[in-house]
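Researcher: Going back to the complex we discussed earlier. I've cleaned up the inputs and rechecked each line, so this should be the final set. Can you rerun the prediction on the complete assembly and write out the structure?
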Amino acid sequence: MIHPLHTLFHPKSIAVIGASEVPGKAAERRTRSLIQGGYEGQIYLINPKRDRLFDRKAYPSVLDIGNAIDLAMIVIAPKFIPQAVADSVKMGAKGIVIITAGLGETGEDGKKIEAEVLKIADEGGAKIIGPNCSGLFSGSARMNLLGIPPIKKGPLAIIAQSGNIIDSLTHYAEMRGMGLSAIISVGNAIGVKFHEYIEYLSQDDDTKVIMMYMEGINEGSQLVQVARRVSTKKPIIILKVGRSKAGMRAAASHTGSLAADDAIVNAAFKQAGIIRVSNVDEMFDVATCFANLPLPKGKNVAILSEGGGDNSVAADNAEVQGLEVPVLPS
Amino acid sequence: MIHPLHTLFHPKSIAVIGASEVPGKAAERRTRSLIQGGYEGQIYLINPKRDRLFDRKAYPSVLDIGNAIDLAMIVIAPKFIPQAVADSVKMGAKGIVIITAGLGETGEDGKKIEAEVLKIADEGGAKIIGPNCSGLFSGSARMNLLGIPPIKKGPLAIIAQSGNIIDSLTHYAEMRGMGLSAIISVGNAIGVKFHEYIEYLSQDDDTKVIMMYMEGINEGSQLVQVARRVSTKKPIIILKVGRSKAGMRAAASHTGSLAADDAIVNAAFKQAGIIRVSNVDEMFDVATCFANLPLPKGKNVAILSEGGGDNSVAADNAEVQGLEVPVLPS
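Model: Rerun complete. Updated structure for the full complex:
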């Protein structure tokens, strides 16, 4: 059985609603990263004011394409979004990525549009990613809707509630020669939720390790349930802010997230087998280890280095962190 | 008044006893790094088997130079060291850096040689660095006795009981564009002790921050006394292993150090104003901050970043680490 989110990561065709050639614009960067990223399906650029964009035909509306679409990426002003979603659903879209910001995170007007959009999508059987998100990347489909430089395919997946955390992680990946299977910028997450992405990635053969950046948890019990099942097969590493009042305030002003009591978060994560980290560097280090090394059978480690000082420091830190450095038979 | 260790870091002349041209040898690397490092004083190469080395005259013994020397670096077999030290003292050496390993750290025979050497040096008014050390670097004298690539002059000083910790720190310094005022590889430290180096660096105008790597503490009360006085003027950052049994074992086999009870070490360091770190990366980060930034007046910090996620993570970590991230007036 094909997973309900499968089409989002393996679409045969993509419509970019609000495609642009104006350098530096969110729409331009994403149109360009999609075209230049090596995606082999059909790309349809939608912009009622242009006949051609990026040396391709541009369509006034998604209804004018004349073919069904699998995925739509929407980068237009909030008031035009409900119609664009309705049109996309009509043309068969199974996934709709809404990049546009200024919706639910800014107030009641935005929340109304979100509710309307979600209703249209639900009725049409389409999944909503975003709004207020950075986009989507699929390694196997070579689909880069993030507007960032080319990303290598590999074993790491990212689910993140922040565009610049994604930027940091993809930058580390490039520096360290690691590749990515999927990147999901969840944004306001009115449609697909964290645990649904985890569920999807758990059965995705390209993904070996799941990294997540969270500011708030809305579906806590589902997250713990899914993670508990998945973490026995694939490591789930989460950077979750809200350990301090300052972190909670920053998260609230960023994505409107309300942080839960942190002791409860820690206990729940532990129960679910989730590895919690405190910064992006640590997250990438842990993920890289899981991706490149076999799972250890126990706590015993041996240390090999070219110097006595490095050995001493490594042994000391290993044991402080709960590992054992046994005396080797001489 | 000139500090008793001043001449070690600003010698007018240096004799390399055991100078060599054999590529890769400890003596060759150090002879070369001294010659190529830009040192402007007199260099005398001593090797009874050679007339010339590195296109310079080579002398059979330090006694044949015909001039006084300020500093001697000794890289010859243990049994020849006492005579070389006696000759160096006779020629006026105020400092003697003994690179040779296989002395006190290997057993009683080595300990006897160390005692003999120390007696000769003490009677002659010379300071011993090492043995079993990597050498010495002085930024202002452009003196590189470490056998490593050129090092830029700058505000950081290193005192270390491990050659490869020095290698790591100088590598970071180069990557980050930071410079060093002094590097001291203490080795078995039969002569000059940790606290004497700190004392010297405290009055050295080139040094702004002192980094130390320690495996064992032999003169604990002097260290705390000196550090308490110095740390009010210059930050002292120490990476000290021995927080775990594994770390203690590794240190014991590396430099024969006996680690003290770690709770006592922590309390003593805190009293002395010493900043304790757990790895080389952290040590370099902390040192770089102290070298480049003014001392904060309090615990309040503001965070500036280009993204909401980075802000949330930074605010969260700041407060968890005991800083305050106040709400700014809007």
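Model: Worth noting: Chain A touches chain B through 47 residues (CB under 8 Å).
Researcher: Good, that matches what I expected from the previous run.
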